[in-house]
From TrEMBL:
UniProt-annotated stretches for the region Disordered: 91-134
Pfam families: SpoIIP
Keywords: Signal
Gene source species: Vescimonas coprocola
Ranges of biased composition (kind: Pro residues): 97-107
Signal peptide (from-to): 1-26
Keyword Calcium among UniProt keywords: no
Name the UniProt record assigns to this protein: Stage II sporulation protein P
Amino acid sequence: MKQIHIRRFLSLLLAALTLWAAAVTAGSDSAAAALQQLRQGSRLPQQALRWELGDFFGLDSLSAVTVMTLAQSPLLLAGRSTVAALLSAGVTRDPPEPAAPESPDTPSPSADPSLTDGLTFADNGVPAQTTAPTSSKGYTVVNGVYLKNSSGTELDADALADGSFAAQLTDDGPQVLIVHSHGSEAYTMPAGQEYTPTGSFRTDNDACNVVRVGDEIAAALSERGISVLHDRTLHDVPDYNDAYPHSLASVEDYMEKYPSLVFVLDVHRDAVSDADGNQYKLVSAEEPHAAQMSFIMGNAYDGWQENLKLAIAIQQNLSADYPTLMRPITMLNYRYNQFVSPGAMLLEVGAAGNSLDEALYAARLFAQGFADTLQS
């Protein structure tokens, strides 16, 4: 009688173990996967069955426990030969692949330390954002350079991609003229370095506005052996609305006096704010963080393609080392005085929320890319 009770108990235990095996292997899509699930479970059920049945009637080198377990699952039973082969070879779980160390989206290049000389990058308290396209939708892409075309004129990407441009350096005299149609455009200074405003984020203090940025570009280009003239006139003071006619008059005077001038850089800064008027700074993802820059190019004049091709070439050069330094080029149906030369461009350096140091660092990087493009 005692033996009958023991065997009833063991029969119930075996039934429970069968249900356990079915639960463990649920969801497995192959015999091998199901077997791995079984082997990863507790070893206690298998030891109990071996105590009752032993391993003396194995089939295909399988123990009694394994054979009985296979019989409860059509999936496992159909793959009995696979199970046997896996067991004879020793089924093991491969260790997970070690996680690759995360690399930054835009690794910082090994920039010349002199490019940050004298800059402290003191926090001015303005929140930062980096503007970069996440897809080509809505853009024309030429040699990896993104163009936001709002001009109403279709762009021929293939014609713009040949890498050529008309404006070239010569040795005849001054080559580059830097002007500021909106010279009073200023930045957000850190605490203790504030300027006296003459408008919303504007000042006639040339140490804090885009004229200071023009000084930096001029100095950096001169170090590369490029002859530069810098018109420091505030063409938007006192009349902002007539700024472009005023700056055009200055450019024409310079070009008449210096016929060797080929490149005209009209240096501005942008402004980016939320619905409440709170400013944002635009910075590169690369460190040190430079103010992001952008070309604003017009096409309401003959020959605008050459100006645009020059901007594309410079931006392509800069983006090779600083992928997020330049924002997409903006194309608009205006002239921006760019008809004066195939080397005329409008460059925005940062935004009103940027610090002056961020803008000066960007100016140095721009001058480097400009010189590399023209001197290569």
